[in-house]
Design goal:
The complex is a heterodimer of chains A (about 525) and B (about 375). In chain A, the strands form four sheets. Chain A has a six-stranded mixed sheet with strand order 6-7-8-3-9-10, with helices on both faces. Chain A has a six-stranded mixed sheet with strand order 15-16-17-13-18-19, sandwiched between helices. Chain A has a four-stranded antiparallel sheet with strand order 2-1-4-5, covered by helices on one side. Chain A is about 40% helix and about 25% strand. By secondary structure, chain A is an alpha/beta fold. In chain A, helix 19 links the parallel strand 16 and strand 17. Helix content of chain B is about 65%, strand content about 5%. In chain B, helix 9 packs antiparallel against helix 10. Chain B is globular and about 70 Å long. Chain B starts with 8 loop residues before the first strand and ends in a 13-residue tail after the last strand. Classes of the chains: A alpha/beta (about 525), B mainly alpha (about 375). At the A-B interface, helix 3, helix 4, helix 5, helix 6 and helix 7 of A face helix 5, helix 6 and helix 8 of B.
Chain lengths: ~525, ~375
Amino acid sequence: MIRFSNVSLWYQDEPVFAQLSFDLAEGELVVLAGPTGSGKSSLLQIINGLVPEFSGGRLAGHVFLGGIDRQEIDLEQRVKLIGTVQQSPLDGFVADNVEDEIAFGLETAGMTNDAMRQRVEEVIDMLSLHDIRNRPLRTLSGGQQQRVAIASALALQPRILLMDEPTSALDPTAADEVFSTIHRLVHDLGITVVVAEHRLERVLHFADRVLLLQSDGKVVVDTPERIVRKFPTPPILTQLADLAGAKKSPLTVREARKLVEPLTHALKQFTPTQRFISTAHQHDVLKVNGVTVMRDGLKVLRDLNFTATTGTITAVMGRNGAGKSTFLHTLMGDHQAASGTIAINGQDPRHLSGRELLSTVSIVPQQPLDLLMSARVSEECKTSDALHQSPLGTTWNVLNEFVHDIKPDQHPRDLSEGQRLALALAVTLTGEPEVLLLDEPTRGLDSAAKKHLVDVLQSAAARGQTIILATHDVELAAEIAHKVVILGDGEIVAHGDAAEVLTASNMFAPITSKVLAPQTWLTVADVHTALNARDSK
Amino acid sequence: MTIARFSPLPALQVHPGAWWLWALACAFLASIISNAVALALLCVSITTVGLLRISAAERRFNFQILIRVAMWFVGLRIVLQTLLGYPMGSHVFVKLPTIDLPTWLSGLRLGGVITWESLLNAATEGLRMGAIVLAFAAATNLTSTSKVLRNLPVAFHEVGMIIIIAITFIPHLFSDAQRLIQAARWRGQTIGRMRLLVWNVVSLCEAALDRSNALAGSLTTRGYGIHSSQTKQRNLVVAGLAIVAASAVYFLFTSQGYVSIVVAALGVACSAVGMKQTQSLSTRTQYRPDVWQVNENYFAAITLAMTISVVLYRDNLQAFAFDSTLNNLVPTHFAVLVFIAAAISPLLVTIASPHQELVRNDSI
């Protein structure tokens, strides 16, 4: 269905990839994997024609869609052949409400009104959008928005569906909902689906094949079972199977539980070690007392009580729209609490500004770019030094501890997700704030960048900084959090030690604990440590 | 012929063409009248309609920002005129010390006598710009971009992208500006907002354009504006619009109202024929089409009334304040009352759109 033959792409004379050749069959669900910057989005855009026609770049080689050279398919036909779903659906919506959005493509295709009504009705049923068909798009939850985006792509009955990280903004349940829907569509309609995705644990078991773009610009296409061996970091299920000495790579928790039985047995004699907080002098830095926040006449946070001690990492979790971001922004002093008090070292963050604020509390927002203000990395660092009244070069040095491949004259917008996050982190950490807030820090990060983030946060906590992060990333929470808070509709529904809260939940349980339940192991590393301790005895 | 039952419509459900007609008529009016009080009344009318009929919080915010921009125009104009302009009339308001500028700047003067007349003249010019800004701000925020787009005559589909970028640019710019102000606090910047925005104006524009561009990209992948062009018909439309524009210019420089009405009507007819032809050649269809009904007819009627009355009574509307006395300041001509009433009358045929369901998304 999709065949690449010696395809190369350059942006401003920098090669993105060279001499790609592969063949994807009709009716396959293909996962496109690879580190950030390996050209996943560009590859999708080559298929749908945005590259090079719309966004530029130089393309060589041939792309065949359904056996026809892409260049011989005019734009009008291509639109009917290929549906595209973007990373953040809201940016791509062209209409105001669900039905109009679905109908938009049909209108441009010039379909008669009767046929259109029928087609819209069909996809509404297919994606269970009936209850929300008249809702304004902006009022939908992230998962619903993504389903609408899929519906409007499917309305044109494409033979190929392209999706660029469709679940990066979604909570685990909503993500699963989206992928199950896609999986069903592939089986019911026989369309070819290509999904670019970072969080492979979410999608691997749905995939027929995986297309792995490696950092050296080579490409491998293989079944998920076999390709996991080629990943720089194998998926958690594979790591566990390896520890158990199994030869196979399981793709689902069910398979894995069978394979790792010897491991489960061996681990029975251990209890998972508690994570200890490393600073000696602990005191409550942050006190939230009965805080309620209203927005648009709606209580988005209700009567929250929360404290955090120095050196702890707290993960705030909950479904989309549960109030996680609002909680962080309230701690930052962006929202006025309708009732209750917030105190960081006894001070209300709303009354702080300038250097006082910087040394008390800092935030890395969902989009790190929102925090950055200059057109060049070097200027950004200089501004940061000035604002923190630190000696020139401090921020640049902090940044270089995290990453080494940023050039001083780059524009922050041209950096990769991971590099942007590193820059935002450097800028906030230079002030050594007592409390550091991070909103969805692993969005769009590949496994290498994620590992890096974990190191940075852990050493910051070890220096006595208090870290609060809002995240959908269960594995991140399992890896670094001491405490976990789960929010539901603006209320704290669970609060306690990470191990307790995470393993008790179905939605937020990390894979390791799902596989090894009823034992309460959070990460492969914990298991590893326990086994090593046994061996050394 | 049966008369359709009339009931006020929510503002967002009114055909976008109707709102734009109204806004264009208001802008036309503003460019013709030159009486400060009449212009101020016009500004108040447009603002009232906007504030009472725009209900979504974000749109209200956009509109309120543009009200401030309009006020800025007035203020800036007065300051520039009084400081730099040549004094008009004889009613002295205040006498400032004159600053001598070098001889090569002989046309300019700084300070000196400031008369009531020149103040009034500056206010009039400022209010004129302000009214035009307000009319466009009201129209963009009273209609939904996607509705405008789908109702755009086919002849304009190829420039649809440009229109999308143009219409969504300002709202994006504002939300980016808000984000920048927020970021400045997060970063511990303590400089004033204005200075911050001025310093970052380039990057702000860049970011807003980026986002408008993303929308245009999404339109392309959905097949908008890729139909074969119908050059001949489109030329007819463009020619028609050119005639309308020419008649307006002619009208501004002469005072032959009747002639320009006839010429403009010719232009409108010409472009209507062109649009009709492109429309019939187009393959684009509409899902649950927006209908032009009795309320929209009302809009069309008031627009026509405003335009024609202002053209015919222009001489009377030229009631300029600084002839010799300042007596003519308050416009008493009935035409003024008519068009002010017309400008505010959309309030009669519309109601505010009901509050949309409360926003629930990740940003909460």
